[in-house]
Amino acid sequence: MPEWKEVLDEASQYAVRYLDGLPDRRVGSSATLADLRATLDVPLPAHPQPAREVIADLALAADPGVVASSSGRFFGFVVGGATPAALAADWLTSVWDQNAGLYVLGPAAAVVEEVAGRWLAELLGLPPTVSAGFVTGAQMANFTGLTIALHEVLRRAGWEVASAGLWGAPRVRVLAGRGRHGTIDRALRFLGAGVDAIVEVDMDDQGRMRPDALASALAVDDGPAIVCAQLGNVNSGAMDPVGEICDLAHARGAWVHVDGAFGLWAAASPRLRPLVDGVARADSWTTDAHKWLNVPYDSGLVFCAHPAAHRAAMGARAGYLVHGADGERDALDYGPEHSRRARGFAVYAAIRALGREGIAEMIERCCAHATRFAERLAASGKAEILGEVVLNQVLVRFPGDDDRNRAVIERVQQEGTCWMSGTTWQGRAAMRISVSNWSTTEEDVDRSVDAILRCL
């Protein structure tokens, strides 16, 4: 019999020790590349080894190279942690090992994603009839959303991408703000549309798309067009005026795609919801559950207001497949993957455990912590806060040139109390603080501010 209990007990004991130690653990990795290669790069085993010993050795060797991104003091990029219910559901996902591509391979996985998709639409203020796809992250969510958009705007222009491809197709313009995320450009590269399809629209000093600039850009050409709005500038957290963008774009017959990797979650908060006013009028939306919903990686989401267009762009049919009967949802019709992990279980558990009120409170708490960061650093007289703090993002500039600012960021990362990433904002180096973790406390913020000031 397989040694299930022994090997799972070993993994569980390490996991609990790791999680219990997060409040005091160094946040950044403590191992060098040479250290990790010395312990992990062993010769290919010639013979089987006891599974429990393999797991024990792996945990011991890998631990120094693990970044504590689940820590309440990790503020790099926009990375959430994992709530207890979401993590436990993710363990069950591995135990059940369902291939969630087809209903017949995982009926429970299919129904859970159906329900979670409906809950998400309600939380995020989207139309109740939207279709939903569970993908790896915002990159593949944007790829999926833009695939649907490209197929549909060309279909309306009399061109079928699925059969004819893009060679010879009418030119499609993609209007996107100068402050857009790089996943938009990368998705267009993957699609074969190319980054030259992008028409850059001016933004204001906070990183928001300017509606007047969009109106001017739309007026240049009445051909097929996709407008990419952004909810949550990755540096400043700024939110595009999505309602105005939808009105302008739809008046010209353009498709509106909303990149809401983290900012779309503002819709789940009664206090922050005005920031996304009009979002329901868009055509497609993306966000990440592994950011502000705090489920384990990987968990991206794409929604579409036109389910038939969604299935037409993504769906697959083959004689060897057993496709779902009426009412049975095949996930491969809503995303680019065929075989994939049953990501919906963790999302379902996270939403059910937190509830509407818990999700709103978590998002508002993260934003309050971001404001606390800004206020304490500004009050020190040793830091400048760049721009408004509208969500969970804080941009910080220290006295001195770019080299000194980058050196301070590196020193903070090496010191270990907390971890923030660097960026370039309006031509100047800056520290970027992102508060996205459900477990972050005011004490975590204060400890981190004190560490930053020490590192100056």
Report a brief summary of the structure.
By secondary structure, the protein is an alpha/beta fold.
Question: Could you please describe the fold and organization of this structure?
Answer:
Keywords: Decarboxylase, Lyase, Pyridoxal phosphate. It holds the Pfam family Pyridoxal_deC. It comes from Paractinoplanes globisporus. InterPro entries: Aromatic_deC, PyrdxlP-dep_de-COase, PyrdxlP-dep_Trfase, PyrdxlP-dep_Trfase_major, PyrdxlP-dep_Trfase_small. With 456 residues, this protein is α/β, with parallel strands linked by helices. 42% of the residues lie in helices and 12% in strands. The protein has 2 domains: 65 residues; 263 residues, Aspartate Aminotransferase, domain 2 (3-Layer(aba) Sandwich). Strand 2, helix 8 and strand 3 form a beta-alpha-beta unit. Helix 6 crosses helix 8. It is globular and about 60 Å long. It starts with a helix and ends with a helix.
Span between N and C termini?
Answer: 58 Å
Total helical elements:
14
Q: Let me know the CATH homologous superfamily of the largest domain.
A: Type I PLP-dependent aspartate aminotransferase-like (Major domain)
Radius of gyration: 23 Å
The parts where pLDDT drops under 50 for at least 5 residues are none
Spatial order of strands in the largest sheet: 1-7-6-5-4-2-3
For the largest beta-sheet, the strand count, sense and barrel status come to:
7 strands, mixed
Alpha-beta content class: alpha/beta
